[in-house]
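User: My advisor, Dr. K., asked me to get a structural model of this assembly before our group meeting. I'm new to this, so sorry if the format is off. These are the inputs:
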Amino acid sequence: MKNKLTAGSNLLWESSRMMLPEHKALLREHEASRDKKQRPSYDEQFLTDLVYQIETAFIENRMIKLTYYEDEAYHERTGKIIAINRERQQFQLSSKTETDRFSLIDLISIE
Amino acid sequence: MDRTIFLVDMQSFYASIEKINQPSLQNKPVIVAGDPKQRSGIVLAACPIAKKFGVKTAEPLWQAKAKCPELEVVRPQMALYLNISYQITKILEQYSDLVEVYSVDEQFIDVTYTLHLFETKEQLAKQIHDEIVDSIGVESRIGIGPNKVLAKMACDNFAKKNKTGIAELNPANLEKLLWPLPIDALFGVGSRMKEHLTNMGLHTIGNLAQHPVKWLRKRWGINGEVLWRLANGIDQSPVVPRTHQTQKAIGHHMTLPRDYDTRAEIYVVIKELSEEVARRVRKQNYLGLTVSIQVQSNNFQERQGFNRQLTLTDPTQLGRVINRVARCLFDQYWTGYPVRALGIALSQLMPKAERQMSLFDDPTDEEQLARIIDQIKEKYGLTAIMSASSLSKAGQARVRATKIGGHNR
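Assistant: The format is fine. Below is the predicted structure of the whole assembly, which you can bring to the meeting.
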């Protein structure tokens, strides 16, 4: 059983503090928002690299693993690129079950 | 590795914020106090000018006014104070990610790994102090130590009393600075403990530090040894940023505007508290297993009142279940005296995902209904939907909805 003498325990301070529940809730929200991801912001060079990788994967008709940003989190998807819209900077990825459109600015990486 | 920890304490936090809000109060004696009609008429914070008149935190409003007739009394704005406290947390997080909020006006920050970016500890402390003044406008005092307890005691006993507002305690100056102080200057020693210790002839922190630990352990067990360690400046507790993440219990407590002495009236409040506890349990997606109720009588001398708990067979997040159990406990232990304050809590919390199927009843439908009611409350306010009993004279839900911690929002 953990007590106030246990090494690494914070019990001494946890049992003595005075915190309003509303204050704790605020801090919990703060912690949760820290885990949220943001849309990446890239420099020109990195974007050029990404475009190059997309184009080659398209030409070679290769299976790729995509990591992308959506709703404050990173997601992964595997599939083949079946179309590229250069004007809109978008492309379509087709996996076994579905086909979706992705924007260049949401991309994190391609493997 | 030696740690460096700061305790950052906001000077007369609530009163300072009010002075920033209303510059005309700047040079007047200001206190923040609750509403005497709602029985919350005590001094929550007093500015340094008011303190010079002898006004103390936690004394009744009338007493403070007697000491200083020209006192400016401001009603608290709790949401604002919490928000500013949170802004300060964010400022501190720029200096280290190890920030632990200890109370609304005290926060620990472990700067062990960022200290090398600054010339000295004092310089870093001063920079933090200055940034808080620049961006928030509130004065702070900073205690420095190799652990939390020395940082805290450096702040309370020295930084609050010197001119710079910054003080350090460490093993080198411990005997010289801390040990001569009276025993109740030690963190964790209250009035009752002070009495015990002085009866043993231990009048200063140094007396206690040099007392054989085994005798302290024999008399008070773990707590005796903890105090001995603190007196010797030993505290291994880490600074835990995520310490508020997990909760052991969710509870709600209220002091009634007048003493309630009929069962029917008290039932109304028990129901409201149960619903409020359940709502917060649901909000965090928990289930709880133990319901406890605390009842305080209006008579402080006779030890009336009780604190009882009961463990359920299945964990719950429903107000109906909490209410039933709390009522049952109340009926069992209440002997008819007027009730001044009531509290209800749900503990032994677990994430809802882990629930075992109950053999007897399936609460899913009821929980869904409760969730929808919660959503309505989130969107349109706590009073958008409530029990009809809350509209009776005994009901407190409407008043409560405008408060935080029993004081104005």
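One thing worth pointing out at the meeting: The first helix of chain B runs from residue 13 to 21.

User: Perfect, thanks a lot.
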